[in-house]
Amino acid sequence: MTLATKTAPQEQLEQFLVKSGAQSFLDPAFAGFMDERDPLKQLRDEFVIPTRGQMAPGVDRPDESSIYFCGNSLGLLPKAVSRIVQEELQQWGEGGVNSHFSHRFGRPWVRIEETVQHQSAKLVGARPEEVAIMNTLTSNLHTLLAAFYTPSKASGGRHKILMEAKAFPSDHYAIESQIRWHGLDPKDSLICQAPREGEYLLRTEDILETIEKHGHEIAVVCFSGVQFYTGQYFEIEKITKAAQAKGCIVGWDLAHAAGNLPVQLHDWNVDFACWCSYKYLNSGPGGIAGIFVHERHANNFERNRLAGWWGHDKVTRFDMVNEFKPMSGAAGFQHSNPSVLTSAALLGSLTVFEQTSIQDLRSKSLLLTGYLHHLLTNEFSNQVLEIITPSDPEQRGCQLSLVFKQGKMIEIFEGLAKRAIIGDERKPDVIRFAPTPLYNRFEDVLQFVLELKKLVAEIYN
Ligand SMILES: Cc1ncc(COP(=O)(O)O)c(C=O)c1O
């Protein structure tokens, strides 16, 4: 990674400042100029943006848009989702069970998962056969670990899992329970990689050192692609390569990466991955999730797996035989017939992604989050807030995580919510803000910073 790449978004913003003729980055003319020239600006119209009055009853200017920086938690509703889900309800009403095979909108339910497979695969840099859209995230993590975590402590073999010390708790619970499921004790079989004393971020060099030292006893390395708390984007390719060189299986939880930044799961040779679709993929609360299984595992039927009829060979699925014959690829890991309504919701959202590319979204995102980073670092003292997300744009996605000092986080969070500015708090002292390139504007960033300045002046006076 060169220095020039690292500073590119900031350099670009400075060039745009000159072009805009604005006095400074705080000048509304600058944000206006950036929104006007934004090649993706029309995508905002594809979403339902909650109003200020809806997000903060009693607020002034209730009909204007709220500032929604919470796409890292739950993305906003794409208009196409309402349409396609409505079509499925109509189909159900008119066709009942026949809709599995005959569908007036061309989406027979018996193949509904195929409607969301290709575009999902594109978003995570996978081949279509490497992806299955199914279940929900934690269930999928269990499904994948059931197949890929096969500890062999008794024979002195590999039995450990390496993960982040502060992973999202559901991942931690899932992994500890998998270890116990095999009759092992997390005290012996779990390695949690913690940041150095006084630091928030994990250093790649430290992860690599752990792999070098313990790799021979590690069965699976499983990190998140983008860390939920800090927003750190891990070096997936480098970590995967180092761990595989030591003979480990490597899996990634892409909950905060899918739809946020480009990843190349196939080319990076990742063994398995999983993600949810309700964050940057905007498929709605509890939306259907995804798995990736690298093609080199596609036909390895020796590896035991949790089986269900939707993973069984499509041709004979309805023959109702007891002998399980898994499909090749990720599809062979499916269990149940997929939820049609959540698949339809995901399909609606993916039609918006189809109008652009993850690379173009990333280009805008680098500028949008770069702008937010610049304003926050220039307008606030470090006695008030600290950005714990990496300052290097290559090591983060949309999200910036801010620690508010002196125990004031909740006051700030509530103050912002009253002004219809939506981030999300994570205890003890962080608020996460994620301007997302599909529907956020430079104006949102500027208005947010101006409002935060007022609030900080009140709260920290
Ligand atoms: C990194 C990560 N893992 C797991 C989960 C749990 O997801 P689910 O409730 O969909 O299983 C989340 C939810 O936000 C998450 O961010």
From TrEMBL:
GO terms for biological process: 'de novo' NAD+ biosynthetic process from L-tryptophan; anthranilate metabolic process; L-kynurenine catabolic process; L-tryptophan catabolic process to kynurenine; quinolinate biosynthetic process. It comes from the Eukaryota. InterPro entries: Kynureninase (IPR010111), PyrdxlP-dep_Trfase (IPR015424), PyrdxlP-dep_Trfase_major (IPR015421), PyrdxlP-dep_Trfase_small (IPR015422). Its EC number is 3.7.1.3. The modification N6-(pyridoxal phosphate)lysine is found at K279. GO terms for cellular component: cytoplasm. Keywords: Cytoplasm, Hydrolase, Pyridine nucleotide biosynthesis, Pyridoxal phosphate. Its main location: cytoplasm. It is an enzyme of class 3 (hydrolase). The keyword Cytoplasm applies. Pathway: Cofactor biosynthesis; NAD(+) biosynthesis; quinolinate from L-kynurenine: step 2/3; Amino-acid degradation; L-kynurenine degradation; L-alanine and anthranilate from L-kynurenine: step 1/1. Belongs to the kynureninase family. Homodimer. This is Kynureninase. It comes from Lunasporangiospora selenospora.
